[in-house]
Amino acid sequence: MCGIIAAATEKSVGKLLVQGLYKMEYRGYDSAGVALHQVKDIAHLRSLGKVEKLESKMKKQKPRGKIGIAHTRWATHGKPSEENAHPHVSKDRVFIVHNGIIENYIELKEQLSKKGYVFVSQTDSELIAHQLDFFLSQKHNMFEAMSLLKKKLQGAFAIAAIDQSDDSHFYLMRNKSPLLLGISEEGMFAASDPLALVDITNEFVFLEDGDVVEASASEYKIFDENEKRAIRKITKLNISSEAMSKNGYRHFMEKEIYEQPTAILNTLDGRIGGEDVLENIFGEGSNDLLSNVERIQIVAAGTSLHAGRVAANWFSAIAQIPTQIDYASEYRYKNPYVDKNTLFLTISQSGETADTLGALHYAKERDYLGSLTICNVPTSSLARESDFMLLTNAGPEIGVASTKAFTTQLAALMLLALSLAKARNLNPKLRTRVVSALRSLPEIISESLNLKPKIIRIAKEVAKKDNALFLGRGIFYPIAQEGSLKLKEISYIHAEAYPAGELKHGPLALIDKDMPVIALAPENELAEKLISNLEEVKARGGKLFVIGNAAGNMTLKPKNLINLPECDFLLTPILYTIPLQILSYEVALLRGTDIDQPRNLAKSVTVE
Ligand code: F6R
User: Fold this and answer.
1) Distances (CA, A) of 8 to 35, 133, 160, 184, 286
2) What pTM value is reported for the model?
């Protein structure tokens, strides 16, 4: 999604802004731009495509300025193009960058057109520049113009702006879209993502909805939603720049797949004791909450939703708690019935997914017992706004396709299932067994990473095809869904997932020699039935690849079969995810796609 960076220092900031844009590339974008205050005028450069193109334009034109704003755009209104790229400008005077969506843009655009403003882009963002210019023409200063603008706009927005007649400040505004200040002795900075400022400072102020900020190289002033001067806490974040480098791997996704043993270790660290989960790991007072939970409502999107689907099985099997699960984008619109003592549970890597956050805001107005989030970013909106949280501690995930975030979510959700069982005095022996199995999990995952050469052989077959089918049963169906999502998003192969027993109700018609079928076949109570389903595929000439130890008695070529290390059956969904991640990665590598930034996708989806 879009990224904003702004800077005010005593030196030229062009290079620094571009470096910040590079750090936000992982979020997904289609164009980039910068506006640099050169005192006599503002240099305005934009380019379609990668930040590299913008950088080479800057190297040619050599703009210099101590104040500047820059942006990576992920198109919402208007196609990816140079005209639609930010910064947008009004009358060569006001330059703005914007993340989010202005919901009343048609109405505001009409009003401004009647006042003589000419629109040159198809975006909902350009009007912000014109509206500010209009307020400035009414003798307001830039700070007043920003405050007046705030009252006009509806929707979600993070905005940074500069004014040609003010060469010492940049201005900010936030409503429902992340924006923060970075404070350093070198100057004042702002960004929509702290990773953009990782080489500049570790001191951040997270802005709140309704905040307007005026910042110069030496100071910043924040005014809250009621226009009162606000003092906000400075948060220190120690993000190592190693987390932002590929560290010898070809892609961030590859690095993140291999980081999973350590990431899971970090999820478990300090949360399990001798034989059980520790108390209050979701925050002070969370034990009281958990002992009253009778139902769970999960809301999440994409990969995080798949983690929720696995967890729903665990909550039922381990803690005897029924779970309702909904897509974040759908939940609010189905008039959900809230039963008594229901816990509202969100799952999110970024903690900024607009649909999930919107669902939390809605849930807070309903009669839930409380809200809990499983999240990877401690400073995110979900982490700050939920009553309780458990951080997955996976470290920054840069590849757009979620890998370590998913497996650490699963580990965290297993801790929740165990904690719920403990709060209800259920299954003490099983809890001890699973806690011990969790301790061995990082090592078992390391072992599974060694399966890569075998998986590459399968990848070579799948990469030649245009479709793929993923099969699983029971708790492995959501894992099949995750495998299919991973393959389609990074290799652009059309993939679908089915519970294997459903095949004969329709999808079996798709089976022929051109349809690779990737089946998850663990040794569990469903193994026999699953194998019969797979025999049906084989009998119809389907190209079958089986991951799992239950397929031993099928007559499969060894290259079509991948056995996995032994693992407690309750944790096998985590283990079986690993070969599917490697498979997608290797297929995408063979097809030469942009693995870390697949087309059309964004890392943190901050629009609804
Ligand atoms: C897929 C993927 C997405 C995210 C989804 C939710 O690999 O990463 O499907 O899982 O956009 O994002 P978070 O977890 O940040 O709420």
Assistant:
1) 12, 21, 12, 11, 43
2) 0.87
